[in-house]
Write a structure and sequence with these properties.
mainly alpha, 3% strand, Ankyrin_rpt-contain_sf, globular
Amino acid sequence: MACADFPLRWESTGDQWWCAAPIDWAAANGHYDLLRELLHIDGNLIIKLTSLRRLRRLESLWDDDPRFSSAAAARSSIAHKLLLDCESPSGGNSLLAAGYGGWLLYTAAAAGDLVFSGELLRRDPFLVFGEGEYGVTDLLYAAARSRSSEVFFLLLDRAAAAGRSAVFAAEIAHRAVLAAARGGSLELTVELLRRYGGDVLSFRDAAGSTVLHAAAARGHVQVVEGLLRMYDIADERDGQGNAAVHVAAYRGQGAAVEALILAAPPCAYATNGAGENVLHVAVAGFRASGFRRLDRQMAVVRFLLHGRLVDVGSLVNARDRQGRTALHVAAARNIHANVVALLMAVPSVEVNARDVNGMTALDLLRRRPRTGSSEVVLRRLVAAGGIAGLKDESTRSALVAQLRANPPAASPGTRFRIADSEILLFAGGARRSSGDGRGNDGDDSSEEEEEEEETEFSWADEDGPGSGRVSGPVEVEK
């Protein structure tokens, strides 16, 4: 059933807003006639409709909310109708020929639509490896999101059957296990771990992230709790020394942070490779690249500073390897004034703590570009007794180097030793037909801010699909 109450804009970290487009709303509500009219008005809207990164964002904003759980099924229905409308009299399909098969299969898998997924794979068995920006990792993740074991194993078995080499089989197994955890299906995760056997810690991505990192990054509390009941892996680290609690805090997953601290209280004070604790990374998450919901990130900081499960004094004044406290991080990155206010509200906070370069939070803030938010923070720091006065200009260069260091890693469970676009090269004989015009040349599921390009797109003439086509990849009868 269509829902008229979909929220259409969200406040992001970094003092930005992000808005859904009319075509997003039409697809999530199953309004095919409206969607088709929008595409006739502006053919470039197909880019918004089929963008993987945009779709991932809408999933986190709409689909993960129980009130809007019908959105995935509505998108699948829209995709199926669009596929049928693009059939040509000669037997081909302009939507598939234009390279949108990856989007179609992702949409079908995310809705748990076994019939639609099977139809697409009958048309092109190698579509399971995706095309364009969609890869096999993304498709397995979509199927895991749907909680449909039938769709998930349909895709997994088709992918596994395409190759014979041990390297290929291992890559598919790693993708499947991490996709199940990242998609929030504890049942699938446990079943796959039993199927493949071996140590749970052997299933890692290229950044060293475990299944626990993958589940925590997406906020899947049921999977996190289930894994911690079965395995003692709360303190396992990725390649940058981050435990799962660091990843969850950085990505604004408050429920996962709480579940991890309840299951393993020492992880609240654990530090990563940069010496940062969970509060450091939660504050740093406000300036992460890409989209972060401000309300969720604020909720993590409030939870940590509430003091119900942790010693707030130990967290707020803890130093990283650069000697910086969470207040230093907030000032250096020009974080939202409300975050600084929360930190300064802790009675034991050291306002004038100095880092290894002798800089206080006020020193760092005065060296950042002035904004309305920074002016508010500056006045609060001065009113609280903050001092500054460091004159050494060489230290300013050190500050810049610190801010550029340690860029955030990709989302756990999305990067592997062999890229999705190259995995068929290791299949041991399997090859996609060179004449079908398809092939995944994108990266593996990056969830950072997208840059959408405009492209030529036009519909067929009114006489019918396939007739009088001017230019563009898709033909639909109006």
